[in-house]
Design a protein that fits this description.
This protein is α/β, with parallel strands linked by helices. It has 15 helices and eleven strands. It has two domains: 230 residues, Up-down Bundle (Growth Hormone, Chain: A); 233 residues, Vaccinia Virus protein VP39 (Rossmann fold), CATH 3.40.50. The strands form two sheets. The protein has a seven-stranded mixed sheet with strand order 7-6-5-8-9-11-10, with helices on both faces. A four-stranded antiparallel sheet has the order 1-2-3-4, covered by helices on one side. Its main location: membrane.
């Protein structure tokens, strides 16, 4: 077994690189000041690329798995741990710092650049996260985090060795220079990901381009500035490896659009009709207005199934409208389906829809499938739409402004929605309700996640809005709002849970004297729904607050 640290026999060429002691000056093709600048510039670029890889994994895991706090914690903690392992492992490469750094950058560029595409492929072509692969993709996420963290951690000791070879200086000064460039690069990478890469290139192309930059800069530094530290064989190997990595990444970039279309069809089926990335989320429509049932997916989560959505929206809207309802506020509901049910009631004077994503409401206004489904609700002059955060909108709304508030928001289990199911949020809703006003909240499936459902109830009560619970069974579990990855099957919720709240305990009833009556709901079925929901009660739960979320 050959010891890489042992000196080569006299007269024999080094196999990989030229080992140099700590005091041996590196032969450089440029002046030391220029060389030092180039090394620090490489540190800057590598740090930016490394942070993009981290954020890419966090974002992709949040989109595909849900619960962004958990995914961010797993990815970042594993990466930081792995960076420590990588730094320790790189100690053995310090005498071959140039060759070691070149090899590390080539592998990092390939692993980091392809990570998003590999993870999305596993998700798309293994039937989501269920079945045999129930834990496989999560292990793959951890494996990528571990591998990328080890490689990023190995960069620092090797770059420290390279910068010391350019010009010897005290250890504290070298560390300060190195980490200054590293932290500034991380800042640039962290800002570039959400403001440049994600909106303009998307996750797949953004990661591939980052890997390309990473490989090109690492290879340029080693093969250009430190080429005399490498044997001829090592230079050929590094050049070949980097050209291969760049070719793979370039090919994947060229094929990214075709890959994404194929993966989207694997996830959503063959009848994807619209797929747009708005400023907020990915919106996908399947089916058509004249044949196949319409499906609306937001960030991969099935939000509307045209074959069963009426059961959900009638249960959401009709009980809360059995009282004063001239002024109605809908929080969420950008698809226009809740507004459709509201507008069916006589006596409605104004409907304000607060939807954070203007791209969704624009689609609901103009897409023939959605406009057919929502009965052209946004064409009614009584409807006004604003693209605002619901929390901010409530803070700016005058007291007693509405008779009815309908909370048709994403499931509380999705981290971004947690504040919209907090005690503070419901306190704002209570303020904007008229004294005899009523609120209805979609609180997730009562049977599948009773603890979450009854935590919403506890939060309402803590805000002074006692509630009555009811649930409606889905006909085929096809419409599965919330963070579930499957549209149907054993893992999908089979009911929708609702909470009807007011300043005084409200009566759960339907106004059957008005026409048109709901098609899927009767007073008898509503009473049975309330009894079914009460059987899932989890007593003694504390409310969820902004500083102590419970979901």
């Amino acid at each position: 077994m050959i010891d890489p640290h042992a000196p080569a026999p006299p007269g024999s060429p080094p196999a990989w690189g030229v080992p140099r002691g700590p005091d041996a000056p590196a032969p450089l093709p440029v002046r030391p000041a220029v060389a030092r600048f180039l090394v620090l510039a490489c540190v800057f670029v590598c740090a930016a690329c490394g942070l993009v890889y981290e954020l890419e994994l966090v974002a992709l895991a949040s989109y595909l798995i849900g619960d962004s706090v958990t995914q961010a914690s797993v990815v970042l903690s594993v990466m930081v741990f792995a960076m420590g392992l990588g730094s320790l492992a790189a100690k053995r490469l310090r005498r071959l710092a140039a060759a070691g750094f070149g090899a590390v950058e080539a592998v990092l560029a390939l692993v980091g650049g392809s990570s998003a595409m590999v993870l999305y492929a596993v998700f798309a072509w293994t039937g989501g996260w269920g079945g045999l692969w129930a834990d496989g993709p999560r292990f793959l996420l951890v494996a990528f985090s571990l591998a990328i963290g080890v490689l990023i951690g190995a960069e620092v000791p090797l770059l420290m060795e390279l910068i010391q070879r350019v010009r010897r200086q005290d250890a504290g000064g070298a560390v300060a220079d190195l980490f200054a460039a590293d932290y500034v690069g991380a800042l640039v990478g962290g800002l570039a990901f959400p403001f440049v890469l994600l909106p303009f290139l998307g996750q797949l192309t953004g990661a591939l381009l980052t890997g390309t930059v990473n490989a090109a800069v690492g290879a340029a530094l080693v093969l250009g500035l430190f080429r005399r530290d490498l044997s001829r064989r090592a230079r050929r190997l590094l050049l070949t490896a980097n050209l291969l990595v760049l070719a793979l990444l370039a090919t994947a970039t060229v094929l990214a659009d075709d890959f994404e279309r194929a993966a989207r069809q694997a996830v959503y089926g063959q009848d994807v009709r619209v797929a747009v990335q708005t400023d907020v989320q990915e919106v996908v429509l399947t089916g058509d207005p004249d044949g196949r049932s319409l499906g609306l997916f937001l960030d991969g989560r099935l939000r509307v199934d045209g074959s069963d959505e009426r059961r959900y929206h009638e249960a959401l809207v009709h009980p809360v409208m059995s009282g004063p309802h001239a002024r109605v506020l809908i929080l969420g509901g950008g698809d226009g389906l809740a507004a459709r049910e509201v507008l069916r009631q006589s006596g409605v004077l104004r409907v304000d829809v607060v939807e954070f994503d203007p791209g969704l409401t624009r689609l609901a206004r103009h897409d023939p499938g959605l406009t057919t489904l929502n009965d052209h609700a946004y064409g009614d002059p009584r409807v006004r739409v604003s693209a605002q955060d619901a929390f901010r909108r409530l803070r700016a709304t005058p007291s007693a402004a509405y008779d009815v508030v309908i909370s048709d928001l994403p499931d509380p289990g999705i981290t971004a929605s947690t504040k919209l199911y907090s005690q503070e949020f419901y306190g704002l809703v209570r303020r904007v309700l008229a004294p005899d006003g009523r609120l209805v909240v979609h609180a997730g499936p009562a049977a599948a996640r009773p603890r979450t459902f009854w935590t919403v109830d506890a939060s309402l009560r803590a805000a002074g809005l006692p509630a009555v619970a009811y649930r409606v069974a889905a006909r085929d579990a096809g419409f599965a709002p919330g963070p579930d990855r499957t549209a149907a099957g054993p893992g999908a919720p089979r009911d929708w849970g609702f909470l009807l709240a007011a300043r005084t305990p409200p009566a759960l009833r339907l106004d059957t004297a008005r026409e048109p009556r709901p098609r899927t709901l009767t007073p008898g079925s509503l009473a049975r729904d309330a009894r079914a929901a009460s059987r899932t009660r989890v007593p003694g739960l504390p409310p969820s607050t902004l500083v102590h979320p419970r979901y």
